[in-house]
Design a protein that fits this description.
It contains 16 helices and 19 strands. The radius of gyration is 23 Å and the shape is globular. It is of the alpha/beta class. The termini are far apart. Helix 4 packs across helix 9 and helix 5 runs antiparallel to helix 10. The longest helix is centred in the N-terminal third of the chain and has 22 residues.
Length: 478
């Protein structure tokens, strides 16, 4: 019997795993560029490609989707019924593009927009932090918080102390954090909150010894519900950097919303669903859903998205928004890694004569993502899309304003991870006053930004062209 070396066995096992991974990719068709990028990574990056596929590939998306659907179906039977017609908004009949967007958003989110809301927009991190802390301190019944990042710094400490104080006073406090995003939060802080009566849970923890080793499907949502009456959502996490307190990052720009009115019920249902998915805990819905009352004039649509939905919800909504634009589109995003379809949509708007402006920060914690985004500048510029890079601090806002008449604001970036992999939360504001507030802030930031004049590949240095090319090739899996 011929002798088989140890390394021969290892090689056979390794290439068997690679072949299995490629078969898995081919049997679950998705965006072709992403499929090709994963196959190339598996073949050209020995060891590393297989590790990355195991860590951030799509191996468990079907299982996650099925589990989420089972939990959602069980939860739906427990929630109190609602009067949908009472707070259904009357939208302008003279804008068919907007009517189409509302129809698509309602069909994809399974919920219609609501009227009778009072929405306050926060552009300043300090003002938002103060409003959030005061709302927590005034809670009478319950506090529900859900964040991607919760830092153990002065800001995180202030929020946790406020929650612990209310928990000791008998207020039911639940805090849901993403296990990867909040990995810096030490166990001592968690135990201190738990000992004070705050329930702390972590979404989708990585526990290799229990078979949970996948780091994808992060909960990137930011939402707070106080007493079922006041809600907060947007793009800001809990930490000193989000208040502009870290010198290396400079001023920090986010957009957050405080909401009172019928839309708060949508935020509450989303939190309860995420909590139930994470813990399987059955929550008594009676104290969580007070009868909604009219609080203001604003029309709001709460749009949760995630890998548990088969449709690419954000893709469809952005396509509808871009197609509906008549005069202008203003997009602010910290991470811009579009696919070919999104590029075509933006180019089409530019060719139609719509004034399209794209605002992206040049100061970023993900240089590879910035390089990938810059690779698309020439083709967008050729269609008349105005590209601006913001240098003064970190632009973390995720905003789309169309015709200064309606707008998107939320947690989703313009990249494949937000579109297809992460759990995100976006609010559509069908309100001219609110849209103009967001447009004014965008114009202020754009005035301080640099207009980019993209160069052709022949104008780049060898190192620049190589870096941009590699980043673009990797963009489907960033």
């Amino acid at each position: 019997m011929p002798h088989i070396s140890f390394w021969t066995v290892v090689s056979l096992v390794y290439y068997s795993l690679v072949a299995g991974a490629i078969v898995h990719i081919l049997r679950r068709p998705r965006e072709p560029r992403a499929m090709l990028a994963w196959v190339l990574a598996l073949l050209l990056l020995p060891g590393l490609g297989l590790f990355l596929f195991a860590a951030i590939g799509q191996l468990k998306i079907d299982r996650t989707r099925r589990k989420r659907h089972r939990r959602r179906a069980g939860l739906a039977r427990m929630l109190p019924p609602r009067n949908r017609a009472e707070h259904s908004p009357q939208l302008p009949a003279d804008n068919p593009g907007l009517a189409n967007l509302v129809h698509i958003a309602t069909r994809l989110s399974r919920e219609p927009p609501t009227s009778g809301n009072d929405v306050t927009i926060f552009h300043d991190g300090e003002a938002f932090f103060l409003a959030l802390r005061l709302a927590i301190q005034s809670a009478r019944s319950h506090i529900h918080m859900e964040y991607y990042i919760f830092q153990p710094d002065e800001t995180g400490r202030a929020i946790s102390e406020a929650m612990m104080e209310r928990a000791r006073a008998g207020v039911r406090c639940r805090l849901l954090l993403d296990a990867i995003g909040s990995w810096r939060l030490p166990g001592s802080c968690v135990r201190e909150m738990q000992s004070a009566g705050v329930q702390v849970e972590f979404f989708h923890p990585v526990l290799p010894w229990r078979g949970r080793w996948h780091v994808n499907f992060r909960n990137h949502r930011k939402l707070v519900v106080i007493d079922g009456e006041t809600g907060f959502t947007g793009s800001q996490n809990i930490g000193d950097e989000y208040r502009g307190r870290l010198a290396r990052l400079g001023p920090w720009h986010d957009v957050n919303l405080a909401i009172r009115g019928p839309a708060v019920r949508e935020l509450q249902e989303l939190f309860v669903e995420d909590w139930h998915f994470t813990t399987a805990e059955t929550i008594d819905p009676a104290p969580l859903f007070p009868d909604p009352v009219t609080c203001g004039p604003n029309r709001v649509h709460i749009i949760p998205t995630g890998p548990d939905l088969r449709a690419d919800v954000m893709h469809h909504l952005l396509f509808a928004a871009i197609a509906a634009a008549k005069h202008s589109i203003a997009i602010a995003t910290p991470y811009f890694v579009p696919d070919s379809a999104m590029i075509l949509a933006l180019q089409s708007a530019g060719y139609r004569g719509v004034h399209v402006r794209l605002l992206i920060p040049s100061r970023t914690d993900h240089r590879l993502v910035l390089c990938a985004g810059r690779s698309y500048y020439p083709e967008l510029d050729s269609a008349g899309v105005e590209i601006l890079e913001y240098d003064i601090g970190m632009l973390h806002s995720k905003v789309v304003v169309v015709d200064e008449s309606w707008a998107f604001a939320g947690s989703a970036n313009m990249d494949a991870r937000s579109f297809r992999i992460n759990f995100e939360l976006t609010t559509i504001l069908y309100d001219t006053v609110l849209a103009r507030q967001l447009q004014d802030e965008f114009d202020s930031l754009a005035a301080a930004a640099r207009r980019m004049r993209p160069r052709g590949a022949d104008d780049w240095s060898f190192a620049q062209s190589l870096a941009i090319g590699l980043a673009r090739m990797a963009s489907p899996i960033l």
